Amino acid sequence: xxxxxxxxxxxxxxxxxxxxxxxxxxxxxxxxxxxxxxxxxxxxxxxxxxxxxxxxxxxxxxxxxxxxxxxxxxxxxxxxxxxxxxxxxxxxxxxxxxxxxxxxxxxxxxxxxxxxxxxxxxxxxxxxxxxxxxxxxxxxxxxxxxxxxxxxxxxxxxxxxxxxxxxxxxxxxxxxxxxxxxxxxxxxxxxxxxxxxxxxxxxxxxxxxxxxxxxxxxxxxxxxxxxxxxxxxxxxxxxxxxxxxxxxxxxxxxxxxxxxxxxxxxxxxxxxxxxxxxxxxxxxx
Length: 285
Prior knowledge:
The chain is α/β, with parallel strands linked by helices.
């Protein structure tokens, strides 16, 4: 059932999947009261309960060293933001047993224009990171970016060897540890940062919202690419329980991973299969 988008509910698909078999679950479920024709338009007050059985199956199929990335945005009705976006991660932690690793933010560099009575336009969304354990695949260097020259110069600046803390305020010392100057006792070992030319990313992802998807709202390919590279190896299995127009599948194949998808809408599946056909053909060349 790999490298196939199944035209069925995600619960039907997951019930046929073995325990601990998926390395990454990457998805963006329909936001509250969105995609009513396909998913029924879940009311914000019922969203958490609607997602709970899906979450329990995701927990079961997720590998012990795997990750679950949940991209979700809020819903505003009559000028007031609904709370399901915040209630959902609490449920996943307290009722489903997930470890809540990080509430990453996707900063949209080109948010959709709009004027609102009492609020600003939406410029970001959550990408919640959950796991089953704390001992997970984490390949931060795979998503590192070139370090700015001024940062390299600052790191190489000569320090006072007699100090245990940097006299420049940078927090860098010559004793093999980067130590804060606020007496918190917190620092990081220099051995973890030996490649000065590359900078590890923060938990704020700056990507434009453009997408090649047709007739289906979804994250851009940059989003799944970041998480697939950071939390999986080549040959690993990625599952998207709300596959839509195939963004996750396309990126997984392009990065030499396998995928499984679930999608109720046959129209979206056709679009997705058209997108991934070239990548699937390349698997057999």
